[in-house]
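Journal club prep — side note

Before the paper discussion, L.F. wants everyone to see what a predicted structure for a comparable chain looks like in token form. Sequence:
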Amino acid sequence: MPDKHLSSQFDFELNSVSSRVMELGGLVESQIRNAIYALSQFSDEVADQVIEAEGRVNALEVEIDRDLSSIIGRRQPTARDLRLLIAISKATANLERVGDEAEKIARMVKSIIHSGTARQLPASELRIAADLASGLLRKALDAFARLDTNAAVAILKEDDQIDREFDGFVRKLITYMMEDPRTISASLDLLFLAKAIERIGDHAKNIGELIIYIVKGTDVRHTSIAQIESAVK
């Protein structure tokens, strides 16, 4: 991922930690896929696999942070190198939180399975938003590996689509609850799931913003798409 540096050892260390970030990203992607499958199939067994994987996700985050602290302490990087290391640390934190959201989905799926109350509600419609969020994370990881700012801007735009899916699903659940109060408990469970999926999209968006920070040295958080596109040019 990083450009060639004057120090070949520094290059080696950066590439090593970048590879571990990609490993973490792959593990988290697998968690999301399994969580979505568990939701669509109401699979208790697959939900358990998602929960069990969380320990490895947490351990990888700790290992990457330890390596980053070691590099900063020994190399005392400046300018772009320091931006890169800070961004890797933040990207790692976002990936770990994606893992948390996947685990939340898995635990809620288990709760829904055991209650047996949500099968009559539109749980399958969450698959659309979930697939969008999973795809967005995949694009964010690919863009991060290539430090592709144009792809990063596209990711920020696509997150809006996930937000629209979430808003539409919430409106549908409200309709269900108004028409039949007996569905309120199960609807709230699905709302919790929808929010976890929406948060996965948010974390992918955060990684997109970090790409722009690394390459351009500009913090584009809380700015409009027009301002971000201007910063990237």
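L.F.'s comment for the group: Residues 8-232 form a domain with the Methane Monooxygenase Hydroxylase; Chain G, domain 1 fold (CATH 1.20.58.220). Keep this in mind when we get to the figures.
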